[in-house]
Design a protein that fits this description.
The complex is a heterodimer.
Chain A: H1 2-9, H2 23-27, H3 32-60, H4 71-107, H5 115-137, H6 151-155, H7 160-187, H8 200-232, H9 245-279, H10 286-299, H11 315-327, H12 329-343, H13 352-375, H14 377-383, H15 387-417, H16 423-450, H17 464-494
Helix pairs in contact in A: 3-4, 3-5, 3-17, 4-7, 4-8, 4-9, 4-15, 5-7, 7-8, 8-9, 8-10, 9-10, 9-12, 9-13, 9-15, 10-12, 12-13, 13-15, 13-16, 15-16, 16-17
Chain B: H1 14-49, H2 51-60, H3 63-88, H4 92-122, H5 138-173, H6 183-209
Helix pairs in contact in B: 1-2, 1-5, 1-6, 2-5, 3-4, 3-6, 4-5, 5-6
The chains are: A mainly alpha, B mainly alpha.
Chain lengths: ~550, ~210
């Protein structure tokens, strides 16, 4: 720590936070660490926008009559919740913040391959966010996040075009991020950082980036077609003019199913880092974890048809899509087994980040197993478009991806800010989020199984108990999500200096001072040891 | 000025930077292929759903102008390829001439495309053109709309390409893009130009040739 302190005072090793204090210096920065922080601010803002919509939905569902919102208001609330959470929080969440901040640090580079494109991606994100907020302010969108035709082109009353433009523009932001990551991982690894020594977080983001660049353009094109149809009123998907709404669904899910893996693959990467650091052990099955990320990215492109089992898709197509969807469980299962095996006989420390990681594994396994059920055609036909599906994907996206995001936040916060937060509050938060989440979404499995359909806010009174349980859980979850605001922000001013490596973790990012200097590494690091080389042999980086 | 390319952060070597630039461009082109690939897949579906109607609409398109335009665009790619080769040999004047020729052929393509659109408007094929639309059956107008969106999207890419080439020609002429030090810039713009060409090579048969 003394070494870190002396380095920080020398002018060329000044921390990225102190490299300039003006707003202008932040808005024109090309430093990947600052862009990551800009993203962290903006996705947090959108997390709140989406969260407010979720709160409205849950409040409205507390009574069978749907007394809080009108029918149109409810449609607009869940559309806002979906659009914002999918494109403005989940997809950029881990890649654009932690990926941006950590990839260069983890592979021994000074920055991402194209720093200006990186900044451009943030501006595009902000521009797209403006379109979304504009759509909300002038009256909202009522199509659901899927923009299904012909609802979105002919019948919807909301401000669909503005929302479509938002999603098109944020897609370019995703593409820029993905492109940057791929080139960075290929071309900017430091000497000795071979593919077999890449941290698994980098492997998973590499797989994510491949999906980002190959899937997003299809969505861009599709939404351009929807825009054209809605604005000019000419036939593209309109069945009266010979169009095919199912064609829209095929193209939409060709993007949107891989998009699920865009959300959850980075979470897998975070888990591999959290689990090894907590157990102080080498990862079990490095190559299995690395290649399972790539396998999920590849198979993920071939399963989209499972969203259309009841939409008139051919029986043979459904059978193939069902088989391939079940196949995705194999690489996902491999990861879970490997994390558990890594923990076996480890000297585990119950840090907040580790508790989030354990929460992730529990919730992800439930989400994954119910996903297997939904991949079976016979079960899916029964529970299609019910709360069972809603509960399933929330277990993956919120229980999985958001929990991993909070785990990452608690793990790398000392690196990003240089300050330690209150560990006890971190543990309480991890427990609250786990409990609140289960109370919110587990009743929804039962609701769905009993026949409660999605996107309805007036329901039979016998469902009220389960809905009230779910809404009560949501309030606990909300407290869990708000608490970190208090103690993390408090730590900025009052936290203890963290030192370069507060968790005693391996990885190049822990060898530089916290917060890292503007120029990441004083001299080019040279990697000579395998990844996750626990226990740490270098006494300097251990407390 | 040395012949070595300028290396800027985060790169340490010129070769590394050059490879990264190329990889970045290729990935970008891959996104373009997915964009147009998804679109062409949709067109194919429409053709399978409405084979008769699509064929009747395709017969309304001007095959001669479309074919001539294909030749114009392929020739522009030839002149772009020559510019790339000459830029490596540092023949500045020759490069500028080839780039201007590329640009002129691109503009010629757009002009001919505009003439085609105008004809289609006059014949009442376009939406909103009024009068008697010869495309009366459900699938026919739909196929024409796909043609319209596809060729417009392609024309938009071509406009971006022309803008890029014009800036490049200006900079090469004023030695702001010194050759052969920044020959890589010419090559990267060339790659984008060729992709626009390749996209047309797929658009042309699916709308004009398969009648």
């Amino acid at each position: 720590m003394t070494v870190g302190a002396t380095l920080e005072t020398s002018p060329e090793r000044i921390s990225y936070l102190r490299a300039g204090y003006t707003l202008w210096s932040w808005l024109t920065t090309t430093d990947h660490k600052r862009i990551a922080v800009l993203y962290l601010y903006s996705i947090t803002a959108f997390f709140f926008v989406g969260g407010i919509a979720a709160a409205l939905i849950r409040l409205d569902l507390a009574t069978p009559g749907g007394d809080l919102l009108s029918n149109e208001g409810y449609n607009r609330a869940f559309t806002l919740h979906g659009v914002v959470m999918v494109w403005f929080f989940l997809i950029p969440s881990i890649p654009a913040t932690f990926g941006n901040f950590l990839i260069p640090l983890m592979i021994g580079a000074q920055d991402l391959a194209f720093p200006r494109i990186n900044l451009a991606s943030w501006y595009l994100y902000v521009l797209a966010g403006m379109f979304t907020l504009y759509a909300v302010v002038i009256g909202g969108v009522d199509t659901g996040w899927t923009f299904y035709t012909p609802l979105s082109t002919l019948f919807a009353n909301g401000y669909v075009v503005s929302a479509l433009l938002a999603v098109i523009v944020v897609g370019f932001s995703s593409i820029f991020t993905g492109l940057n990551f791929i080139v960075t991982v290929h071309k900017l690894r430091c000497p000795g950082m071979t593919w077999s020594r890449l941290p698994l977080f980098v492997w998973s983001l590499y797989a994510t980036a491949i999906i980002l660049v190959l899937a997003t353009p299809v969505l861009t094109m599709l939404l351009i077609l929807v825009c054209v149809e809605r604005v000019f009123g000419i036939g593209i998907f309109n069945p009266d003019l010979g169009g095919d709404p199912l064609l829209y669904q095929h193209l939409f899910w060709f993007y949107s199913h891989p998009a699920v893996y865009i959300m959850v693959l980075p979470a897998f990467g975070v888990l591999s880092e959290l689990v090894t650091a907590a157990a102080r052990k080498r990862i079990f099955g490095y190559w299995f974890i690395a290649y399972s990320s790539v396998a999920i990215a590849v198979i993920g492109f071939l399963v989209w048809g499972h969203h259309m089992f009841v939409a008139g898709e051919s029986m043979y197509a459904s059978a193939v899509f069902s088989f391939l969807s079940i196949a995705v469980a194999v690489p996902s299962g491999i990861k879970v087994y490997n994390w558990i095996a890594t923990l076996y006989k480890g000297s585990i420390s119950l840090d907040p980040a580790f508790l989030f990681a354990m929460g992730f594994i529990g919730l992800f396994v439930i989400g994954g197993l119910t996903g297997l059920m939904l991949a079976m055609i016979a079960v899916d036909v029964h529970v299609h478009d019910t709360y069972f599906v809603v509960a399933h994907f929330h277990y993956i996206m919120v229980g999985g991806a958001v929990t991993a995001f909070f785990g990452a936040l608690h793990f790398w916060w000392p690196k990003i800010t240089g300050r330690m937060y209150n560990i006890t509050w971190g543990r309480i938060t991890a427990a609250l989020i786990f409990l609140g989440f289960n109370l919110t979404f587990f009743p929804q499995f039962i609701l769905g199984y009993l026949g409660m359909p999605r996107r309805y806010h007036v329901y039979p009174p016998e469902f009220q108990v389960l809905h009230v349980l779910s809404s009560a859980g949501a309030s606990i979850l909300a407290v869990g999500y708000l608490l970190p605001f208090i103690y993390l922000l408090y730590s900025l001013r009052h936290g203890q200096p963290a030192g370069p490596n507060p968790w005693g973790a391996t990885g190049l990012e822990w060898t530089v001072p916290s917060p890292p200097p503007k120029q990441n590494f004083a001299e080019m690091p040279i990697v000579t040891r395998p990844p996750y080389d626990y226990p740490i042999r270098d006494p300097m980086s251990r407390e | 000025m040395s012949d070595q390319p300028a290396v800027h952060s985060p790169y340490l070597e010129a070769a590394q930077q050059r490879e990264a630039d190329f990889l970045g461009m290729y990935i970008f082109l891959a996104t373009e292929i997915m964009l147009f690939g998804g679109f062409l897949a949709a067109v194919y579906v429409v053709r399978v759903l409405h084979p008769q109607e699509a064929s009747e609409t395709a017969q309304q398109l001007n095959l001669w102008l479309g074919s001539f335009n294909t030749a114009v665009l392929l020739t522009s790619s030839l002149s772009m390829a020559l510019a790339v080769q000459l830029s490596r040999e540092a023949k500045r004047r020759a490069v500028v001439i080839r780039l201007c020729l590329t640009m002129a052929l691109g503009l010629a393509f757009l002009t001919i495309k505009g003439v085609e659109y105008y004809q289609e408007y006059r014949e009442g094929l376009m939406p909103f053109s009024g009068g008697l639309n010869p495309l009366s059956k459900p699938g026919e107008q739909l196929f024409f709309n796909f043609y319209l969106v596809g060729t417009s999207l392609h024309a938009l890419h071509l406009m971006i390409g022309i803008a890029l080439v014009s800036v490049l020609a200006w900079r090469v002429a004023r030695s702001e893009t010194p050759l052969p030090r920044r020959a890589v810039t010419v090559e990267l713009v060339g790659l984008y130009w060729h992709l626009i060409d390749v996209v047309w090579v797929f658009i042309y048969p699916i709308f004009y040739l398969a009648r």
